[in-house]
């Protein structure tokens, strides 16, 4: 709760942030509208069928894990199912151990952020290089992604130019083309040196054991084809039943994420002795039992709900202080770690997220449901006891007369964060009710 | 097919058959990297010199599409094909008979070849990670040239 509050304060105090995030998300949203209008007259029926596919996958999850494992093994590939973050990190490290003295090239993966895998490996002496341009930039800053599909959305070209100059001796220019070319040169050397690669996964096909990866930069192609060993890490929610299920998903995902009719590269990686899949089950499996959990497991991580969310556009992903942000993050995060139960309040409940979701997740309803759950906690809290006492006129009068007599510093402390960003407010020596009673007395005397 | 390819920033040229494209290819920067399945078909040893000694030194790569999707401009190639990945210019041959109507046909092909590592390509590699400004040529090719072939052996 405090972590979110601090992150939020930092975000709100940054004078340029809202402008940068609002501009970037706005560009994607407008392009998406045009694309759907021009190329997808059947958009609604695509959403319908994708939603059914994802619901069915979530319902069948235990079976799909079993089938997928069998398919991967039958194809000569390697698969390990892990139950928590710690186990995932240890399993990955064990696979990587023989390749420790070379850089490890890594494609974008939100699960890596969630599990802390990069830090885990970094502390044990591995050089893990983020190769997606946005991720590469924020790795230089030791930051986390501020958007699930556009990780450096909070930085301007001037910020990025300065980072490249200071950290890597980059060129003195703010031209995105030259900056991109520079990053390509730096990273191409890493690709050619690396013996091991790490990727995430967009979809896992149970019937064939295939890992499906969508991208634009070709860094995932390089990470998954050049090295001797490739590890793909993914949560079980990425599973789908059949290859043909991909039909609507491969249209909806690039259109929703980056407003493209197709992303540049979609890799279909079949099981292979050189490839390992580390599949995270654990808590994700038990989320299926929860009506909110089973809905959010359908999410395909397109980031459209972030782009359209008025709260996200104001504070960016870092404002949430958590790995996943925006409406989907405000739902998934508290389910995975209950200490973030205040996160569903990062929403105006306007419903724009529900309107845009390509797999028909009723996001704003889920946010409301999670709020009502956290309200149940509130009902038993001491703050609520105080409020209830306030409902009694006598107790209220006594409480406020004591409050008025306290020194200002103590009053501010009692009101806590509510006053931190507001100026001092004078408190009348006499309350309204006292004044009312006095005036009444005076009139009666007159 | 042409419009869809151009929409994803690919350059498109039409040729009657294999011999007629060799001249065009030799105008592109060398050294060349040629996909395995094309080596037996293209008279490359005579005309396309010099070949790249190491794949990473190639400046132009030559690949053969398994199929092309008419509506989206997507080409399917073997995933291990470094000719469409490492050089700054990627040339992909697409025989006209391999053009299919929709992305669903590509998905069906992938389903039928589930044992194979395949990659669907739609345009040259790109990024918009800096202020959402589109830059062509991220980690992969900066140019994608598609050669539509009327006749393929």
Summarize the topology.
The complex is a heterodimer of chains A (446) and B (153).
Chain A lengths: L1 H12 L3 H23 L3 H17 L1 H14 L3 E5 L2 H12 L7 E3 L3 H6 L1 H7 L4 E3 L2 H8 L16 H12 L7 H18 L2 E4 L3 E3 L4 E6 L3 H7 L3 E7 L3 E2 L5 H13 L6 E5 L5 E6 L2 H4 L4 H6 L7 H5 L1 H6 L10 H11 L15 H5 L6 H17 L2 H9 L2 H13 L2 H8 L16 H14 L1
Parallel strand pairs in A: 1-10, 2-3, 2-4, 4-7, 5-8, 7-10
Antiparallel strand pairs in A: 5-6, 6-9
Helix pairs in contact in A: 2-12, 3-12, 17-19
Chain B lengths: L1 H6 L3 E5 L2 H9 L5 E3 L1 H4 L4 H4 L12 E5 L2 E3 L4 E5 L10 E7 L3 E2 L2 H10 L5 E4 L4 E2 L7 E2 L6 E7 L4
Parallel strand pairs in B: 1-11, 2-3, 3-6, 4-7, 6-11
Antiparallel strand pairs in B: 4-5, 5-8, 9-10
What does this structure look like?
The complex is a heterodimer of chains A (446) and B (153). Chain A has 23 helices and ten strands. With 446 residues, chain A is an alpha/beta fold. In chain A, the strands form two sheets. In chain A, strands 1-10-7-4-2-3 form a six-stranded parallel β-sheet, with helices on both faces. Chain A has a four-stranded mixed β-sheet with strand order 8-5-6-9. In chain A, strand 5 and strand 6 form a beta hairpin. In chain A, helix 2 crosses helix 12, helix 3 crosses helix 12 and helix 17 packs across helix 19. The longest helix of chain A is centred in the N-terminal third of the chain and has 23 residues. Chain A is globular and about 100 Å long. The termini of chain A are far apart. The mean pLDDT of chain A is 92. The relative contact order of chain B is 0.24. In chain B, strands 1-11-6-3-2 form a five-stranded parallel β-sheet. The two termini of chain B are 21 Å apart. Chain B has five helices and eleven strands, in the order αβαβααβββββαββββ. Chain B is of the alpha/beta class and 153 residues long. The radius of gyration of chain B is 15 Å and the shape is globular. Chains A and B meet through helix 2, helix 8, helix 10, helix 11 and helix 12 of A and helix 5, strand 8 and strand 9 of B.
